[in-house]
Amino acid sequence: MYSTEVISEATKIGIGRGEDWSAPGVLFSPYKKVRSFFNYGWPATEDHVVVSYVNSAGQSGSMCVHRAEDGDVGAGHETYPLPVTVTKIDWVNADQSPCWG
């Protein structure tokens, strides 16, 4: 995750795996003011990341981030127009992801 729409070492927010901050997750999540997500992982079969978040207006949602392909690294980069607080991170199989592969 990154604090801007640009991927750089200076704006990187390191993450764990399979983390979940249930309500009131916004208060306890260490991942605040996130603007973009990048998935360059290659776990065995779980190659998509589903990120659940709450935006600054208090609206919750989720985003599926595909794994970046070797020929298209940008495929693994998703941005959000407002800063969000991440409340859940799930690695899932492409066939089980909400973005259907």
Could you describe the 3D structure shown?
With 101 residues, this protein is mainly beta. It contains one helix and four strands. It has a four-stranded antiparallel beta sheet with strand order 1-4-2-3, with no helix packed on it. Strand 2 and strand 3 (60-65) form a beta hairpin. The longest helix is centred in the N-terminal third of the chain and has 4 residues, at 25-28. The radius of gyration is 13 Å and the shape is globular. The mean pLDDT is 78.
Layout of secondary structure:
Blueprint lengths: L24 H4 L5 E5 L9 E8 L4 E6 L11 E16 L9
Antiparallel strand pairs: 1-4, 2-3, 2-4
Keywords, please?
4-stranded antiparallel β-sheet, 101 residues, 4 strands, globular, mainly beta, 35% strand
Short recap of the structure:
By secondary structure, the chain is mainly beta.
Separation of the first and last Cα atoms = 21 Å
As a percent range, the share of helical residues equals: under 10%
Radius of gyration: 13 Å
Total number of strands? 4
H/E order of the elements?
A: HEEEE
Summarize the main sheet.
4 strands, antiparallel
Instruction: Provide the residue-averaged pLDDT.
Output: 78
Number of helices: 1
- Which segments are poorly predicted (pLDDT under 50) over 5 or more consecutive residues? none
Question: How large is the share of residues in beta strands?
Answer: 25-35%
Cross-sheet strand order for the largest sheet: 1-4-2-3
Class by SSE composition: mainly beta
Which geometry do the CA atoms define? globular
